[in-house]
Amino acid sequence: MTDYRTPLIAGNWKMFKTGAEAVQYAKALKKQVADVENTDIMIAPPFTALSAVSEILRDTRIGLGAQNIFWEKEGAFTGEISAPMLISAGCQYVIIGHSERRQYFGETDETVNRRLKAAANAGLIPILCVGETETQREAKKTFSVLDKQIKDGLNGLILDEHHPLVIAYEPVWAIGTGKTASPDQVQEVHAYIRKQIAKNFGNMLANAIRVLYGGSVKPDNVSGLMALPDVDGALVGGASLQPETFSQIIHF
Question: What fold is seen in the domain 8-236?
Fold first, then answer.
């Protein structure tokens, strides 16, 4: 791993925790990771808990993320949330294009692209999620799927090493299933993603960009994943819901 790619361990809470539960968690995690120095940390609670959790995380190295964003700043878009709203709630990061958003809520590479532009233009750090289903992997379409998701997702974005972007590779077949891609599979895909970034945006960005792995990351497999040369962190789902477990992953 190069010196300037600081590892990022990100926790996606999905639809878990009330405001009070989120505050309790944030206080506990803050204590448990007080000794962490060379790793960036991010948690993405539900929208209802963002402002309260932001207060707890002030002056810590734990960043706050949102789980989604809409591309307009305001308007008649019932149920959506905009970049200015997320920033005012204390967010620095936003997860975009998670496989559950694609699977259940009709997100496409085109809408992911619009969300990415809104986030980047507002100064939020987007975490672009990409990954193939089990059917696509079995049909040997992994790389063509990733190629399209990256190319279409990042289409028209102004990207360089000064515009931070994080990519999270999450094989859909390994999310919440207990299955984890083998180290060889993970490294092969992460190296491919970096190669695609180099092809489309140049070597400088490819070397600077952080590529996270997300797919049943747990305390017992994180150190092996983090040892891979092109893995710069993890996007953690279920294992991020308990501060003790998430702290173990952060201390990989």
Answer: TIM Barrel (3.20.20)
